[in-house]
# Entry
Amino acid sequence: MLMIFDGFLDKNRDTLFDDFKRLLFHSKNPILSSMWPEGEKSITSVTRRPLTAGTIFRNSMISLSTLLSSKQPFYVRCIKPNDEKSSNIFDQTRVVHQIAYLGLLENVRVRRAGFCHRTPYERFVQRYKIIDSVRSKLYPRGAPTKENAAYICRELNLDNDVAYGNTKLFIKQPVSLFQLEKKRTEGLQFIVIILQKYTRSWRQYREFHREISAIKIQRIYRKYRTRSYINKLNELFRNVSNSHDLGKNIKWPAPKPGFIPINNILKKIYQRWRAYKVIQRIPADQRAIFELKLLAADYLQQRSSFHETSIRQEWKGDYLLLPEENPHSLEYRKSISELRGKDNFTHVLFSTLAVKLNTHIKMDERAIILTDKYIYKLDPKKNFHIRKTGIPLDDIIGLSVTSGNEQLIIVHLTSNHDLIFYMHTKNDRVGEFVGHVAKLKRRSSNFTVDVQRYVSAQIDKSKYVINATWGGVDKIEFHKGSNKNISLMLPNSV
# Structure
C-alpha cells in the first residue's frame, strides 16, 4: 500500500483560530452563538493551542462509550436483502429465512408482551437450583422440570413477575433476573465447598484404598513367605523321627526379620516334640526319676558336681530300706510304719543318714526322712526313734547348697531356725534331695534354691555363714568361729 504523508500534520491541526470562534459566539444570531460555545472564553484565558482533530475524535469516542454504557442496550440484527450485495434487489425468501433463523418474530411477540428474558425450563432449573433457599428445602427431584421451575419462583417470590409457557419460562422485569443471578452467585460458594469436600473425600478414599491394597498385598506376601519357610522346614525335617538324634544337628534356615517370633514358636514346638520322643525312649518305670533329674538340673546349674556325677548315677530314693545302706533296715521299716499311721503320709520319697547341726552348734547323728507331707529327723542309735514332730512341707521356703562337692544342705524354714545337715555318703545325693523337694514345692511361688560357695543359715534366730574346707581332720566336724562364722571341716576320704 502506498501512503502519501504530504500535509498530514497540517490536516490534523485545527485551522479555525480562536478569534473567529469569539466573533461567531458574540453574534446576535442565537443559532450561530450556540454553535460556537468555545468562543465564550476570554482572549486572556486562552493560552493553549486548540485541540487537534485526533484529540477531538478520541474525546468524542470516549463520551459516546460512556453514554452507551449508561443505557440499556438493544441488540440490532442485520438482515441481508440479497446475496449479490446489490441495493436494488430484495430476495423475500432469503429475508424470511434469516428472520426465522434469528427468532425475530418470537422476540417481537415477547417484547410486545413485555418480557425481557426467556429460557427453557430445564436450563432454568439447572442454573438456579443451587440457590440457598431452594437447596435447603429439597424441592421434589422426581417432579417434571416445569414444576421444579415453578417451585424455585415461589420460593423467591417471583410468581407475579414470571409467565409459564409450554417449554420456556418468561421473566418480565430485569430486576427479577438480576435477583436470580445474585442469589445464584451467593449459592456458588456453597457448591464450591461441596465440590472441595467431595474432592477431598475422594482423595482420602483413594489413599485409604491404596493403604488397604498395600496391606492386602503385604499380608498375601507374608503368607507366601511363611508358607515357603514352612515348606523348607518340612523338607529339612522330613523323616527326622527315624534319625538317631531326632534332627538335633539340623541347622535351621535364617528367618526373615518379621518371621523371628513365629520361628521361635516353631523351635519351641520342635524342642517339645523332640523332648517327648526322647522321653518315649526311656522305660516307663524310669520316667519319674528322669523328671526329677531334669527338675533338679534347673535349680543346680551352678553346681558342677551334679552335672558330672549325680545326674548319671541311679537314684533310689528311700536308701535306708536297703540293707547295704542301713544294717538296721527292719527297725527303720517298723518306725516308718508307725509314723505313717500317725501322720497319714503316703510315700517316703527320700531317706539317708546324715550329721545334723543343732541349736548349740553341736553335731547329732540323724536319719533324714522326706515324705510327701513332712521331713523327719530320726535317731538311728535308738531304733530310729523320732526326736521331735516332723517339719511340715508348708514351712519350707527354700534350700541352700554349696557350689562344690560338699553334701551340705540347708533347709530354710519360716520359724527362722533352719535345718542343717551333711550327708556322709560316697555318692552325691544333694541333687536327688533337691529334686524331690522342688517337685513338692513346684506350685509355691516363693520357693528358691541358692547355690553359693559360702552358704548362710538361721540358727536360733541368728544368721551364720558356713564355710567348707577339706583336709586336716579324720571325720566331719563343725566349729563355731568368730563373727557368726561356722567352719565345716571335711576329711579327704569323704
The two ends are 140 Å apart (CA to CA). Residues 8-69 form one domain. The chain has a mean pLDDT of 82. The first helix runs from residue 8 to 12.
